[in-house]
Every structure is written in C-alpha cells, then in structure tokens.
Design brief:
By secondary structure, the protein is an all-alpha fold. Helices cover about 70% and strands about 0% of the residues. The chain is built from 27 helices and two strands. It is globular. It starts with 5 loop residues before the first strand and ends with a helix.
C-alpha cells in the first residue's frame, strides 16, 4: 500500500510554513520497516499543538518554494563527507530535506547518525546539542503517522529541558540551539541571512569565545555587506573585525583567512590579502570552501589561470558544486571579453575566432550547470548565461530566460532589480524595443531598495526617456517615466507637470491618473 501524503503547517514568529511530505511508496521499498501506526485525527491534533512549540528545522526553515531540494541535498552530503567537524549539524539538516522529499526512513537514519556523532564527540555537552535532533525526530515520526515514537521523543525533550532553568516545557533557547538555527538559515537562502545574524548574536551573548558561532556571525555579516544595497565602510567593516576575532581564537582557521582576504581586497589592501590566501591554501589545500574563495580572490585580482587551477582542484573534490561551476564560468567570461574586441575574432579562419567559440561554449556550459539544480535561487547564474547568449546573438534563448526570470516571485529585491536591468538593456540594445526597455527599467525603479542595479535602472530610464522626448515631445510613455522620476525625487510640481502632459496624449491612463491624484493631494 502506498501511504497517502501528509501535510503539516508550523508557525514561528518569522515564518508561516506549509510543507507536504510525499511518501512515494517508500514502505513498499523498505519491507522490513514497521507500518505506520493507525491514529485518530484527534490524537494528531493534540500532538500537533506540541510540535509547533519545538525549536528544530521543521519550525525554522522557510517556505519549501525557497529551497532547491536536490541541490541542498547534494551540498549537505558533500559537507558530511568533507567537513567532519560539523557532521551532526549537516545530518540534522539533511533529515529535514529527506522528509520533505518523502524519504522519511532515510531521515530517521540521518537523525540516528546525528545522535551517534553527538554522543561520541560531544558527550559532555550532549544534552545541550541533542535538543534540535530530538525535535526533528518528533516531526519525522509525526509525518510517518508513528505517533508513539513521536511522543517518546517529545517526552525525551521534556526531560532534557528540565536541565535548563530558563527552558519551557519542550524548548530551551540556549546558545547551541541559536547556533544551529543560525547555520541552518545561513545555508538555506539569502533572504534569511539577517535572521541568521540575529541567531549568532544571541548565541554569542552567552558564549562570546565560541569559534563556531563567531565564524557564523562573521559569515552572515560578510554576506549581508555583499548585497548591493548595504553600506560598506571604506575604513573597515564589521565582518573584517569579526574574521579577525575568529583568527584570534583560532589562528589556523583557513576559511576565516580567505574570507577576510576577500574583504581586504575590496578595500585594495592586496598585500595582507595575498598573504592570507597563501597561508589558507597551505593550511587547508583540500577544503572546498577555502579553495573556492581563494579562486575568487585570484579571479578578481586578474590572475585567471591561477583561479581556474584552484577551481579545478576543488571540482575534483566536489564535482556537483553549483558555486564552483559559476566561478569557473566567470573565469572563462573574463578571458572571453578581450577577445570580443579582437578585430579577427569574427573571421572563422582565424585562431581568435576558434578561441572565442570555445570560450563561449565553456561559459554557457558552466553557467548552465550552476543554475540548473537551483532555478529558483541562483538568479545571477541565469543572468550570466543569458548575457553570454546575447553576446553570441542567440536572442530567442536570452529572451526566454529573461521572460522566465521576470515571472519569479518572492526573490530578493536586488535580484529583482538585476533582472529588470538586464532585461531592459537586452530590449534596448539587442531588440531595439525602447518601450519594453522603459517598462523594465521602471519596474526595477519601483522596487524600493537602494542598490547599484536600481541606480543603473534610473540612469538608463532617464537617458532613454529624454532621448525619446527629443524625437517626439508628445511621447506619453517618456513623459510618464520622467514624471515618475520627479515624483521619486520629491519634485512634486514638476512631476504633476509631466503627468498632466502625458495624460494629454494618453487620456484615461490609470497609472498616470493615480499618480497625479496622489501628487495633488500631497501638495
């Protein structure tokens, strides 16, 4: 018998979650496993009340739509193989992903491995570190309709929580719980980096010298600073101070070295940065995270061949890494760009032409391998792929990608602006469709987020609209666009003037009428 699918919802202060766990006939494959315990809806409802109070992956992690499950599973399996120190953490997260995919028996095995590792390696801290694992056990058994086992782990949680004075019946918000939650959110999706940072902050309040949480805090800060709309000081950054703090606690922490080096590179402090990268590669020549960040450093520095050498070493260790594929694609694109300006690169008989063709092929291959497992989250890789298609005059393919990206919802604001910017530029220069370009630039401008992409949307919008007005003073679309820009700048009377002119030539335009009404009421 193929069990039915089970649906559950869990609410936390940050998220309203809704997941579906599909069994996919797993009990037919696992004949030795016990069948699900029959239970009444009342029993499940009563247990559900307790489940929603737990602190574990099932109540932390964001909407299923924000996760590329296969890619996440691959990354966690790579982490388990290569990062022995934090295997328990990865097994916990992997159990959650397996449950979402319907592999509940595998999820239980993952949790058993996490529990075994915690007993063997953290015996003196076992009760502090087992809380999340026990919570995950409860949820997985709940989905399997094995409520007796779910209740038994709930009882274990209650017993452990009695050891902590500030704990509630089933929850103890201690540094170990905050730390694991922080790493989970940091691993999941970019929109949760801010919440991850807050988790590490709380963990460090009670244990300021913990290396694991200091690294997590520094990484969250660094990623947040990397977003286009975040202000970065040119004297120092919070993350730089934090990475230096990690190196005070652990002078051999190679990943902290390369991440600090990338920050120093942003501030043109190349000398110290190069020394840190070389030291990191000596300390951890086989650690994929160190290799990939070192390669990024060399690519930005302009040493593309060294970057490629390091990346290919990393690919031998983690051949399915989407990040590595993207970085290799960026390296080949850096080699390609000067060739496009080569006068002989358009001559099929010249070696420059053949080299150009080969580099385009390599770029497309690696960019595609980067976003194929992560179509919802690796937006930049798709934009890079579309850009190469456009350079190679594969316009239908590029346009198809832009159209698909423009339909995406619930993505980070700077990603939305980047899509609008690149789609607008494509329409402007490749398709010669100024109206569509203006519409895309306007959409990017309307995303209220201060970023480089938004600034470029504005520059292109203003330039295109002004050029059209010079050609045709009755162009309502150009007048409306400039009206919007004046409205954005707080120049209300000038904005009114432009919207009134736009309505003379496009009577009844609801967008212009609405903007005009709003402006008149505010003056």
């Amino acid at each position: 018998m193929v069990p039915q699918c089970y649906v559950f919802e869990a609410q936390t202060p940050a998220h309203q979650l809704s997941w579906t766990c599909y069994r996919r006939g797993h009990y037919e494959q696992q004949r030795s496993s016990p069948p699900p315990t029959l239970c009444s809806d009342t029993e499940k409802d009563l247990l559900k009340v307790s489940l929603n109070q737990l602190q574990c992956h099932f109540t932390w992690t964001p909407q299923k739509e924000a996760i590329d499950l296969d890619d996440m599973k691959q990354r966690l399996e790579d982490s388990i193989q290569l990062d022995v120190k934090y295997q328990a953490r990865s097994y916990n997260h992997l159990a959650f992903i397996n449950c979402l995919q319907g592999n509940c028996e595998e999820a239980i095995q993952n949790l058993k491995e996490a529990e075994r590792i915690l007993r063997e390696r953290h015996g003196d801290e076992f009760e502090k570190r087992i809380l999340v694992t026990y919570g995950n056990y409860v949820w997985v058994y709940y989905h399997m309709d094995r409520l007796e086992e779910a209740q038994s782990y709930l009882d274990k949680l209650e017993t452990v929580c009695k050891l902590f004075p500030e704990a509630s019946r089933f929850t103890a918000m201690i540094p170990e719980v905050y730390g694991e939650k922080g790493w989970t959110l940091l691993t999941t999706a970019a929109q949760y980096y801010g919440e991850a940072k807050e988790c590490f902050t709380k963990a460090l309040e009670e244990d300021p010298d913990n290396i694991e949480w200091n690294v997590g805090y520094a990484t969250a800060l660094s990623r947040l600073e990397g977003f286009s709309g975040t202000q970065v000081s040119h004297k120092s950054t919070e993350s730089m101070k934090q990475f230096r703090r990690v190196l005070e606690l652990d002078p051999d922490h190679a990943e902290a070295m390369v991440l600090l080096a990338l920050k120093l590179q942003e501030l043109s402090q190349e000398g110290e940065a190069s020394t840190l990268v070389e030291r990191a590669l000596q300390k951890s020549p086989d650690l994929p995270h160190v290799l990939r960040y070192a390669a990024k450093f060399y690519r930005i520095k302009g040493d593309v061949e060294k970057a490629l050498k390091v990346l290919k070493t990393a690919m031998e260790i983690t051949p399915n890494s989407t990040f590595l594929h993207h970085q290799i694609g960026l390296c080949y694109r850096k080699k390609l760009m000067p060739l496009l300006k080569h006068p002989l690169s358009k001559n099929p008989k010249d070696p420059a032409f053949q080299q150009k063709v080969e580099l385009i092929k390599l770029c497309k291959s690696h960019f595609k391998n980067a976003f194929k497992p992560r179509p919802l989250t690796f937006i930049r890789a798709q934009l890079d792929f579309a850009g190469i298609c456009s350079l190679n005059e594969e316009f239908p393919e590029a346009e198809k990608i832009y159209n698909n990206l423009l339909k995406l919802k619930d993505i980070r604001p700077e990603n939305r602006q980047a899509i609008c910017l690149q789609a607008g530029l494509f329409q402007l220069f490749q398709k010669r469709a100024e109206s569509k370009a203006i519409a895309h630039f306007l959409e990017g401008m309307k995303v209220n987020y201060n970023s480089i992409e938004r600034k470029k949307c504005r520059e292109n919008l203003e330039r295109t609209a002004t050029r059209r007005l010079h050609r045709n003073p009755r162009d309502s679309e150009a007048l409306g666009a400039l009206g919007f820009l004046h409205q954005l700048d707080g120049k209300k009377r000038k904005a009114v003037e432009y919207f009134e002119k736009a309505l003379q030539f496009d009577q009844g335009n609801e967008e212009y009428l609405s903007a005009l009404c709003e402006l008149r009421l505010s003056i």
